[in-house]
Design brief:
Alpha-D-Glucose-1,6-Bisphosphate, Chain A, domain 4; about 50% strand
Length: about 140
């Protein structure tokens, strides 16, 4: 499953990047995130690995993130491994003018087991969750 989503952040690129790179900031826009444990590599650089722990419906879920590509402020690409499968998320940031940044998310999912069936049937929910994170990041940057 693949899809692309985008929105516009009404702040300068430098401010968007400052908020995006803040390791504590992610807790403000990734709903359900309880903690992040750095595993290896230099944080924020290609090859860095971290475990993200989420609380969803009173169950803890762990997702391992690996930074696959990094060319900020233009682009960064993550790989995520979990019990449900694997996905890649490429985030692109395009400066439209001095006070506006277009954020684009390209997502690719490779599901395992029963999630292959559920993933196909619930594609809309995956898109909705991705957009929710993007809109929450936009609000975090614009409103603090």
């Amino acid at each position: 499953m693949k899809y692309t989503l985008s929105n516009t952040i009404n702040r300068p690129m430098a401010e968007v990047m400052q908020k995006f790179k803040d390791p504590e900031g992610v807790k403000h826009w990734m709903e359900g995130l309880t903690r992040i444990e750095h595993l290896s590599g230099t944080p924020g650089e290609v090859g860095a690995k971290s475990d993200f722990y989420f609380l969803h419906k009173n169950k803890e879920m762990k997702i391992t993130e690996t930074i696959l590509e990094q060319d900020l402020p233009r682009q960064i690409k993550f790989g995520y491994q979990s019990g449900m499968g694997y996905n890649e998320v490429e985030l692109r940031f395009e400066e439209l003018d001095a006070h506006t940044v277009k954020q684009t998310s390209n997502s690719y999912f490779e599901m395992r087991g029963l999630m292959k069936v559920f993933g196909f049937l619930m594609q809309g929910l995956f898109k909705k969750q991705s957009m929710k994170y993007m809109d929450a990041f936009k609000a975090y940057v614009e409103k603090g």
